[in-house]
Amino acid sequence: MSASALDHKRITTKVILQMKKDGEKIAMLTAYDAMTAKLLDEAGVDIILVGDSVANVFQGLESTVPVTLDEIIYHTKVVRRSVKRAMLVADMPFMSYQVNTEEAVRNCGRVLKESGAEAVKMEGGRRIKDLIIQLTEIGIPVMGHLGLTPQSIYKFGTYEVRATEKGEAKELIEDAKILSGAGVFALVLEKIPAALAEKVTTSIHAATIGIGAGAGCDGQVLVTNDMLGMNEQFHPRFVRTYAKLAETMRDGFKEYIKDVKEKKFPSADESY
Ligand code: KIV
């Protein structure tokens, strides 16, 4: 972590935008529980996202579509308890902001008031422009999300790279400019070509946070459980694994079971 990010006791939208200006990369990871969030915060991550990836990671679901607003509020509240420095962002789940602006504003307000999140994240392009304007006017910072937007999986039908064709790439750049103009402070770019992500990054005021979008973004995000190697079935090329936690955990469980079965645990020292 560079000296300038360390200088900040709390990461705010202003700090994020300053980091973009200074060319200092933004590190974002996800959390769904207080213990992991504490370690992330102590390690110095800039943004902690309570993602609707809670569906895949925590709930054992195949898509993020079923996640509810109450579940996001619950997990964000839990994470809030241990986050002191990082900016805490909550993902707005599918159908919590799509029906109409009034309902969306009320739901985003609930998330900030009840969970302690400092910003909300939502997927989508120009369709949510007016909502973003309203939310930022009210004082609810918004992080956008373009490219592969998992809440639209039934529309896309695939988790493949997005915007590889000219038309979709052009539309994505336009959407990014519209969202930035409407007031998002940051924009997640998921699974799009690196050159396109770089073009978006240099074209907008908001900070871009890439996931499978190359090195040209202002920052990077990964799902924490993926980068820790907890999911041995999920190996997309954009995930770099920094630990082999599945292996470590399984070995630990096996050793414990063996010790119990062989009457080696607990020892006298571990007893009262
Ligand atoms: O839900 C999530 O974790 C996300 C990140 C992958 C950006 O949206």
Report on this structure.
With 272 residues, this protein is α/β, with parallel strands linked by helices. It folds into 2 domains: 3-241, TIM Barrel; 244-272, no CATH class. It is 43% helix and 14% strand. Strand 4 (119-121), helix 7 and strand 5 (142-147) form a beta-alpha-beta unit. The radius of gyration is 20 Å and the shape is globular. The relative contact order is 0.11. The model has no long low-confidence stretch (mean pLDDT 96). The structure holds 3-methyl-2-oxobutanoic acid (KIV).
Question: What is the gist of this entry?
Answer:
This protein has helices at 3-6, 13-22, 34-43, 54-57, 69-80, 101-115, 129-138, 153-156, 166-182, 194-203, 224-227, 245-261, and strands at 26-30, 47-50, 87-91, 119-121, 142-147, 186-190, 207-211, 219-222. It has 272 residues and is α/β, with parallel strands linked by helices.
Strand order of the largest sheet: 1-2-3-4-5-6-7-8
The number of domains is: 2
What's the CATH architecture name of the largest domain?
Answer: Alpha-Beta Barrel
CATH topology of the largest domain, anyone? TIM Barrel
State the helical fraction: 40-55%
Structural class: alpha/beta
Largest beta-sheet details: 8 strands, parallel, barrel
Low-confidence stretches: none
**What's the CATH superfamily of the largest domain, by name?**
Phosphoenolpyruvate-binding domains
CATH top level of the largest domain is Alpha Beta
Number of helices: 12
Radius of gyration: 20 Å
Mean pLDDT: 96
* Count of individual beta strands: 8
Bound molecules: 3-methyl-2-oxobutanoic acid
